[in-house]
Each structure stands twice: as C-alpha cells, then as structure tokens.
C-alpha cells in the first residue's frame, strides 16, 4: 500500500529541520546535515498545510522557546522491533534528565546491549521529539549524536541551563 508522504522544512535555532509525515503521523524530524538524513524522495510532496506537520512545527517552536517539555504528536517511525523498543525507551526520558546507553538498553528490555542500543539511538528518525540527545556515555560524557555533539550539548543546555555551566567547569 502506498502512503502519501508530505514534508516541510522548518527553521530552528540549531539549523533547518526536515519534518516528514504520512497522513496520520510524524515519521521523521531530521537536522538538515545530520547523519542518516534521508534524501527527499521524488514521491514525497512538500506540504505546509498538513495538520501533523503544522503541529510538529508549532510544538518544536514551543520547545525551542522553552515553553514545551513534552511532545504530543502521533508518531510513526520506521524501524526494526529492536529500534522501536529503544526509541520507545528514549521517549520516556524526562525533559532535563539524561540516561546512559546501558540503562537505555535495560529499559528497552535488552540488558547488556548498550552498543546495539547506541546504534539504534543513532538511527532515531525523530530528533528532539524522541529525545536521543538525552542519552549519554556511562561516565556522563556526550557521545554519539547524529545531529552533532555541538547540537547535543545545546539541546541539553536548553533543557538544563546548569548543564552548560557544569560542562564548562569540568
């Protein structure tokens, strides 16, 4: 079955974001230069009127303004069952908090699979909305973010202003 895919480009304080949706749910939110950015498919249609894309745009604007801590969007990420389990576990990490890859693997039902959870985290198609920037190394260090470590640090600082001060003092 062929589903209509719509997309729009959204400016953000950290660069343009490509938002991708089917008729019912958001399928992707990618920084313009991130690793694993899908090319805009010829079958996709630019769509600035989609209710899902408009809601995602508005909620991301609120997030960057500091007034939204949790996203309320229908989501339809495409991935393996393992990846979806990891992404579901990531989605439960509260605003302003971090979690290690090892703890993430356990929460996803796969203890001892920190590296595999890290790989699944890197393939998260819903940047910010499924907050993979909140996943850190076992020692609390910033490791592996498909959107770039500079963005990861800025997202964490947005959520936890003391994070940036702590990082500078270390």
Q: Mind explaining what this structure looks like?
A:
With 170 residues, this protein is α/β, with parallel strands linked by helices. It has two domains: 6-65, Double Stranded RNA Binding Domain (2-Layer Sandwich); 81-169, Orthogonal Bundle (Arc Repressor Mutant, subunit A), CATH 1.10.10. The chain has helices at residues 51-65, 81-91, 101-107, 114-122, 149-159, 161-169, and strands at residues 6-10, 17-21, 26-31, 45-46, 99-100, 135-136. The strands form two sheets. It has a four-stranded mixed sheet, with helices on one face. Strands 5-6 form a two-stranded parallel sheet. A hairpin with a 6-residue loop joins β1 and β2. α3 crosses α4. It is globular, with a radius of gyration of 16 Å. Residues 164-170 have low confidence and may be disordered.
Keywords:
single chain, 170 residues, alpha/beta, Double Stranded RNA Binding Domain, Arc Repressor Mutant, subunit A, 2 domains, two-stranded parallel sheet, 6 helices, 36% helix, disordered C terminus
Strand and helix layout:
Layout lengths: L5 E5 L6 E5 L4 E6 L13 E2 L4 H15 L15 H11 L7 E2 H7 L6 H9 L12 E2 L12 H11 L1 H9 L1
Parallel strand pairs: 1-4, 5-6
Antiparallel strand pairs: 1-2, 2-3
């Amino acid at each position: 079955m062929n589903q209509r895919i719509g997309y729009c480009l959204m400016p953000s304080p950290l660069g343009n974001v490509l938002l991708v949706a089917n008729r019912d749910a958001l399928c992707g939110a990618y920084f313009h230069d991130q690793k694993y950015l899908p090319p805009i498919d010829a079958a996709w249609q630019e769509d600035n009127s989609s209710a899902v894309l408009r809601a995602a745009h508005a909620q991301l604007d609120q997030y960057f303004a500091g007034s939204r801590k949790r996203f309320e969007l229908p989501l339809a990420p495409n991935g393996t069952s393992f990846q979806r389990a990891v992404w579901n576990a990531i989605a439960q990490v509260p605003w302003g908090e971090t979690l290690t890859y090892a703890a993430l693997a356990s929460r996803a039902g796969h203890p001892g699979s920190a590296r595999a959870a890290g790989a699944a985290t890197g393939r998260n198609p819903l940047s910010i909305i499924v907050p993979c920037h909140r996943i850190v190394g076992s020692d609390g260090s910033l490791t592996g973010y498909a959107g770039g470590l500079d963005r990861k640090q800025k997202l964490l600082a947005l959520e936890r202003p003391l994070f940036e001060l702590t990082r500078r003092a270390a």
